[in-house]
Design goal:
Blueprint (H helix, E strand, L loop, with lengths): L1 E4 L5 H13 L3 E6 L4 E6 L8 H5 L4 E5 L19 E3 L2 E3 L5 E5 L6 H14 L3 E3 L16 H15 L3 E4 L6 H4 L5 E4 L7 H8 L5 E4 L6 H13 L5 E5 L17 H8 L4 E3 L1 H5 L2 H13 L4 E5 L17 H17 L16
Parallel strand pairs: 7-8, 7-14, 8-9, 9-10, 10-11, 11-12, 12-13, 13-14
Antiparallel strand pairs: 1-3, 1-4, 2-3, 5-6
Helix pairs in contact: 3-4, 3-11, 6-7, 10-11
Bound molecules: phosphoenolpyruvate and manganese (II) ion.
Phosphoenolpyruvate (PEP) binds next to loops.
């Protein structure tokens, strides 16, 4: 249920509604926009919520029931777009953010050189996995904490914030020391203990869609994180499993406008995993931006043929730069701009 306050409601009337919600045994979540105040009611209580009791309170414009089971992620609850600050880069505002980097952090030199190449091409954040969810236990599993240290060094040199995957709650004490964004991968989208654990951190979370998850299930997974108090969740469409075999996954472009309508959380598109083949990555990146994505996350490798994971779908820095230029043109057509990288940090800053 949400309680929409009148635009001129006095602060005391807002406090009264919040107290009433709490005394009924629920939690109140305040969303204050320039023109409105909305109070969301969540939680469970033996006291039934009586809509009419709330609608008769002073300062209340109307009371609306939310039929969907996701509340905090729901746009009805929070009409304004959520903007997330990842190390100085804002995601969810008009300017589109392009995140680039390798699937895996392979060495110190590789990640630093790639970070510079991503930045020179127009990327505003660096991705790279130090803990990799691989289908085979015999495949490269990532450099773990060394990989995180190298990512942090790349950030120190280039100023690019870093996005890196957490596979297990036990890794959080280490990863949170280095990351700017915690990525929850497709394979863990419904790992509810991990979702709750990242919800207890203060770091922004990039939540990737499970390979066979519905949009509603993805929204419920975001709700797990939000319910723990972490409000900085980005929804990432990365393709779903279908009967099609020409591409690794099938890009669900539909999910982008659907998510934009249903939630206030920023929507990120990953055309690399969605297609699995570098030849198609740019076309889908452009489609994702045309459909309303707030950011792109793209795999970039200095030498894709030598990559330790996902080389087949990785762009060279040159192709990544071309993608950035073309995204700028599509962004213009949909009245958006593209963020440009901040100047290189100078020592002493
Ligand atoms: C990745 O980003 O490298 C990755 C493993 O992605 P996903 O979880 O979407 O498969
Ligand atoms: Mn990958």
């Amino acid at each position: 249920m949400i309680v929409v306050m009148k635009h001129d409601a006095a602060d005391q009337t807002i406090r009264d509604v919040v107290s009433r919600i709490e005394s009924d045994g629920y939690q109140a979540h305040l969303s204050q926009g320039a023109a409105y105040t909305i109070i969301g009611v969540v939680g469970e209580s033996p006291t039934p919520l009586r809509q009419e009791n709330y609608s008769s309170m002073e300062g209340v414009e109307k009371v609306v029931r939310i039929s969907e089971s996701y509340k905090l992620a729901n746009r009805t609850f929070h009409p304004a777009d959520t903007k997330i600050n990842i190390g100085g880069v804002i995601i969810g505002d008009n300017p589109i953010a392009i995140i680039g980097g390798p699937c895996s952090v392979e060495s110190r030199e590789q990640i630093i050189e790639t970070a510079w190449a991503v930045k020179e091409a127009g990327g505003v954040a660096l991705r790279g996995g130090a803990y990799k969810p691989r289908t085979s236990p015999y495949s490269f599993q990532g450099h773990a904490e060394n990989g995180l240290k190298w990512l942090a060094e790349a950030r120190e040199q280039t100023g690019l914030p870093i996005v890196t995957e957490v596979m297990d709650a036990a890794q959080l004490p280490i990863i949170t020391q280095y990351a700017d964004v915690l990525q929850v991968g497709a394979r863990n989208m419904q790992n509810f203990t991990l979702l709750s654990a990242v919800g207890q951190t203060e770091l922004p979370v990039l939540l990737k869609r499970g390979m066979s998850a519905t949009i509603k299930e993805m929204l419920m997974s975001a709700e797990y994180i939000l319910a723990q108090g972490n409000r900085n969740v980005m929804m990432c469409e990365r393709g779903i499993r279908t009967f099609e075999t020409e591409t690794r996954n099938t890009s669900d472009i539909n999910a982008i406008p659907v998510l934009k309508e249903k939630t206030h959380l920023p929507v990120v598109f990953d055309p690399s995993h969605a297609t699995g083949k570098w030849e198609y990555v740019e076309a889908l990146a452009l489609a994702g931006i045309a459909a309303g994505a707030d950011a792109l996350i793209i795999e970039v490798h200095l030498n894709p043929e030598q990559a330790m994971s996902d080389g087949r779908q990785s762009l060279t820095p040159k192709k990544f730069q071309q993608l950035v230029e073309r995204v700028q043109r599509i962004a213009e057509a949909v009245n958006r701009t593209v963020l440009t990288p901040a100047p290189v940090p100078t020592s002493g800053d």
